[in-house]
Amino acid sequence: MAFMGTTRGGGDSSSGRRVLVLGLGLCLLLVGVAQAVEFELVPDAGSIDPMMLPTMDGEPPRECATPVSVEEACRGASETHAGVDYDHCMASLGADPRSKEAGNKNMHGLAVLATKMAIDHAASTESKIDDLAELEAESTPQARRARFNHCLEQYGGATDLLRDALDNLKAKIYGKAMEQLTAAMGASESCEDAWKGEEEQHRVPVAAHDREYGRMAHIAFGFTHAAAA
């Protein structure tokens, strides 16, 4: 009986050891799986392409863009768009220090810059027309005041359209941006048409600004079209 009891006790001890070993094996297996999953979900920092990471200001990841000089951009736009004059394009973009910034040395960056310049011209022209309208408020005939108001409406609308186009351009929604740029181009022509019939010296009081805005809007469109290609 004593012998049988000893045998039974040894069997219980052996069974317990087997259970312990199996438990440790299962634990190690689970740890290994967890490490493998973590390795897959969190790749090594060296394997991440920095160009695919979001920028610090929350903008979408930047893509590699082909460098383009102002000369190349202006030449291309002048060859494909009748409204763009090469010499004027070079003079306008070349005179703006922003064209030398790193972010503006590709077609997308130059399109954004040209659109910003068009916004500046539209806002400046609107302001000058408003100033003239106020100066002539008391002595201006009703028909002339109506022409001023028409031009103010045109340039106010153009400025809004250009700002919307800039937002779409930054988001690389080129088709919508080009639609808005096209609509904004009409401001200068519409303002000029409103003054037809006036004596030569009274036509479009801000004619130089009006023409400059129209030219800049065409450059912005030409660059945006090239960026979308």
Automatic annotation (TrEMBL):
Superkingdom of origin: Eukaryota
Signal peptide (UniProt feature, chain positions): 1-36
Pfam family name, one: PMEI
Cellular component annotations (GO), alphabetically ordered: extracellular region
Pectinesterase inhibitor domain ranges (all copies): 65-223
Gene Ontology MF term list: enzyme inhibitor activity
UniProtKB keywords: Disulfide bond, Signal
Family: Belongs to the PMEI family.
Protein name: Pectinesterase inhibitor domain-containing protein
Organism whose genome encodes this protein: Miscanthus lutarioriparius
